[in-house]
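Dear support,

I submitted the protein below through the web form. The confirmation email said the job was done, but the results page showed an empty box. After a refresh the structure appeared. I'm attaching both so you can tell me whether what I see now is the final result or a partial one.
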Amino acid sequence: MKAFFIERYGKSGGRIGELPDPVVGTNDVLVQIKATSVNLLDSKIRTGEFKQILPYKFPLILGNDLAGVVVRVGPGVRQFKAGDEVYARPPQNRIGTFAEFISVNQKSLALKPRNVSMEQAASLPLVALTAWQVLVECAHLKKGQKVLIHAGSGGVGSIAIQLAKHLGAFVATTTSTSNVEWVKALGADIVIDYKKQNFETVLDGYDVVLNSLNADTLKKSLQCLKPGGQLISISGPPTPEFGEAQGLSWAVKPILRLLSLGIRRASRKTGVKYSFVFMRSDGAQLSEITALVESGAIKPIIDKVYPFASTADALTYLEQGRSKGKVVITVA
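What the results page shows now:
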C-alpha cells in the first residue's frame, strides 16, 4: 500500500512510498482510508518530542485521524462489517492514517456520522475526543459554569467551544484579531483578542480553563480561575499521574514530576487543580460525538483540503499556525 512515513526523527522529512499491507488481528478491523487530517501531534511525533513516552519503530507511518470504509474484520469483531463507513482516532501505539489502509482495534472505531462527508468526518476524531475528555470526562463541565478555551480558532478549540455551549456553559476564548467574529459565530460568549488584550486581566471567576498553548499562558491562566477551579492542559507539562496511567518506566516518572513541579505548586497556592490530558482513542465516546454531529450540536470545521500526494505540504501549512479548524488530506 502507499503510505507517508518517516525513517528517522527530524523537524522535516517524510515521503510517500510502498509499505506492506496491515496485519488484521482477531479484534481488528481493516479500513480503506478515504480521508485523514493533520494534527500538531503529527509534527511533534515527527520531531521526536514524544520518543520517551511513545517509543515508535521505523519506518513510522504518521497520522492520527481517519474516515473510511471497512474492508474486512477479524474473527472476534461483532460491531462492524465490510462496507460500514467508520471513523476513528487509532490507539497511540498503532497510529498510521497517512496511508491507503489501516488495521484498527474495534474498540477505537465508531460509525461515521451520516450527515457529513468523509473529509468532514476525518477532521473530528482526535480534536473531538480531546474536547470530550477534557470537558466531560475530566472537568465534568456543568450548565452555567464558566470555561476559558484558549486558541478558539484551532482544531481543538473550535470543537471545544461547540461542545461547551452544548453542555450549557458560558464560554470565553482567545484568538487573533482576524478570527474574533469567526469564533463568536461558533458560540463563544466572550472573545479576547490576544493582540489587543491580556486575557488574565479581563477574565476572572472561571471554573475551568482548557490550555493548549505555552507555559507562560498556562501560568497566567491561574489568575482567571476561582478557588476550586480546574486548569487542564493538553500541551503539558505532563504530571506524575500521567506517567502512572501510561505505565512509563521508573526513569521517566521523576522527569515528569520535575517538569510539572512549578505549575503544580502554583496551582496549589491558588486553590486550583492542575491536570494534564493526553487524549486516548475511545470508540464509545466517539459514538457519543457521532450523535452530537448528527443532531447539529457539533459541526466539523475544515480550513484546507490537500490531496494525498501533498501530505508534506499539509504538515507544513499546519505548522505555520494559521489554520482555522482542521487541515484534511484526501487519500482514496
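Response: this is the final, complete result; the empty box was a page-load delay. The chain has a mean pLDDT of 96.
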